[in-house]
Structure formats: structure tokens, C-alpha cells
User: What shape does this take?
Amino acid sequence: MNRQEPTVKKGEEIRKIQLTGRSTYIVSLPKKWIERMRLGVGDQLVISEGDSSLILTPRAFVKPEKLMEATIKISQKDNPDSIVRKIIALYLVGYSLIRIKTIGENITSLQRNLVKDLARRKLVGVEIISDSESEIMLQILVSYPELSVENALRRMCLITASMHNDALKALKDYDKKLAQDVIALDDEVDRFSLYVIRQLKMAVQNERILKDIGLSNPRDCLGYRVVTKFVERIADHAVKIAENVMMINEKLNDPVLKRISEMSLLSVSIFNDAVRSLFERNYSLADNTISRAKNISFMESALTRTMFRKTDVAEISSLRMIIESIRRTVEYASDIAEIVLNLNVNQIIEA
Assistant: This one.
């Protein structure tokens, strides 16, 4: 059977790969292109990878990336929370310099404090490089290889699992100080969440950034974006557990605590397995995680029966909220595992 020759489109050429020495592969370049680019012996080319292609660019044509700069004009009448939302929006779409300025008046102390607090607590890699009465300038200094999407997401997941465990420990030990610490940690999860979303948005538009942040193709960006949102939601439920611990007036009895602990252990185990299946790109582990997640409804039913028999009526409302948050944690973890199935469906296709 004759091998079919590749179709050559107009403007394309076929060049054979040649071997020189023992390990160096070379391809000749079209003379017309060399002449058109005014290149000669010794000139340099920048080679970048596409999905299944290489892009050759004369080095003289490669310009340094220009920092994206945006200016927000505000007045003293503007709601500080609205200003914060505008800054976050600009951060997420990839601006590297964000200038907040007023015309003919000063920035109020409340507006200034909220902007500074946002930069310090919520946005990774942001520094205030200019601060005057009428202007604040923020610069995003972090570069992609220093903190890949995967590493930032791993950090998010570790903090989230720790928050859930500490919230349940606060419940068992009746430790309201620990519950407060869990609530405070939510800012750290939000910081990494915003950073990951920023990187993914930029990667979708720039293939070089996609490689720099540690992803292989644009399809992964959507999956990681949704996973990031689910992890953020799980952290929010850890906060809800801690908030309800703060509302309980006395230590719970052992039978109820025992069942809540069992349900909590299952939820954290399922979350950890879902996350592990994502980073290991393990279809089978994700599939098994989804199957295990279905057990949570049976545990919830048994716990509810025990709670109504053993718990003071005044505490039932807070406990129901805690149980719901544990169940929602499992549901979000199962959703993460489903995304892993979609990202790795090729593993079940026969060659």
C-alpha cells in the first residue's frame, strides 16, 4: 500500500529533516524567506512551540513585552468597595500597572486603606510603588515560572484541607479561638484563587504564557479555572463551619461528635483524592472518588437521626448548617473529580 503524500497548501513547502553528526537534526530554511527577512549567516532566530508546530521569528523582530497599564479615575463619592472590585477585575485580566487617581481632590482615608488592604491580603505579587494624596500606583511583580498555576493551586488545596480539619477540631474541642483562625485563613485562599484565575486568563490569550505557567494546552485552562472556583467554595464552607462553631454555647455530646467526625474524615479524604487525581492526571482515581462520594448521603441521614435524639434544641440549627457544609464539601470534591475525568478521558480510549 502506497503511503499517501501530505497535502501542500498554497504558500507552504515540504522540507525533510536531516541528521548531522550523531544527535543533531537540521532543516533547511527557504531562501526567499531568508532574503525577505534580510537575514544572513550568524543571525539568530527565536523558536517557540505551538500545539504541533514550531514558530521561527528573527530575533530583531522580537520586542520586549510591554507592561499593560490601566488608570482608574475616582472621586471621594465613589464607593470604596466598587473601587476594590475594579482593581480586582484589572488584576484578573492581566494588567501589570494599575493607577488609581483623583482629579482635583484627595483620595479618602477609607478608600486608601481598602486599596492597601486589598494589595496586602488579596492579591499575590502586588506592591504599592507610588502613594500620594491624589494617586496610588500598584505594580504586579510576580513572574510565571516563580509560581506556576499548579503550585498555586496545590497551596490553595493544602490550606483548604487544613481549614476544614481545624474547623472540626474547633468543634470537638469547643475552641472558638481556633475557629476564628480558620475564618482568617480564607483570605489566603482568595489570594491564590485570584492569582490562578489571572494566570489562566492570560494563558488563554498567549501560548508562551501557557507553557510558562506549567499547562500543556488551552483546554486545560477551563478545567483548572472551574477547579479553582470549587476549591474556593470548599474553603468557604470551612469558614461556615467555623462560624457556626462560634454560635454553639457548649461542648457537644460524644455520640454526635463521633458521627460528625466520621463524616468530616470522609469529606476531607474525598477532597484530597480528587485533588491528587487532578495533579497525577489519574482517571481511575477520579472515577473511584466519585463513587465514594455517594456514601455521604447515608452518613448524613444517620447523623441527623442521632442529632435529633442527643442534641439540645438550641444547638440543632448550627449543627444542621455544619452538616450541610460537610456534605457540600464532598459534592464540590466530586465535581473536581468529574473535571479530572473530562481532562483525562483519553486514558480510557483504546489505541
Observations:
- Residues 1-63 form a domain with the Pemi-like Protein 1; Chain: D fold (CATH 2.10.260).
